[in-house]
Design brief:
Order of helices and strands: HHHHH
Number of helices: 5
Structural class: mainly alpha
Radius of gyration: 17 Å
Length: about 130
């Protein structure tokens, strides 16, 4: 398994469990049946950190949607490219850091972490086009 494949899988696995903290908070705040109920504007609000976790998860999924096609194309067209593995690591580190920093409420650092993920995807695209 290449580094590109490894960190793409790791990113997908992270996104597949990143919902757990805010769902557990929802259960703690609203109770099990309240958490399972349909959305309601009258529902008890979740903890502020859990609301931030949910938004961070949404942002990470949106970033992953851009990253994955570029990663797959790179796996097909340039399977031995070392730069792609480095960019995939940077993407994973960026979305993981973004989530943690967002949950903690550290605004400027949150944006910087997201930029790492964004620039990784953009770099993969540039690499595929032969620009870098």
């Amino acid at each position: 398994m290449t580094d590109l494949e490894f960190y793409t899988v790791l990113s997908a696995m992270w996104l597949s469990i990143a919902w757990l903290p805010y769902i557990l908070d929802r259960i703690m705040v609203r109770g099990l049946f309240g958490a399972l109920a349909n959305y309601s504007t009258e529902a008890i609000p979740q903890s502020a950190w859990a609301q931030r976790a949910q938004r961070a998860h949404i942002v990470a999924v949106e970033a992953f949607v851009v990253f994955v096609p570029l990663a797959i194309l790179t796996m097909i067209k340039m399977p031995d490219d070392a730069l792609a593995g480095t960019l995939a690591f940077a993407f994973f580190a960026g979305i993981l850091a973004h989530y943690i920093i967002y949950v903690l409420g550290l605004i400027v650092l949150r944006t910087l972490a997201f930029c790492v993920a964004f620039l990784s995807s953009f770099g993969l695209g540039l690499n595929l086009l032969g620009v870098i």
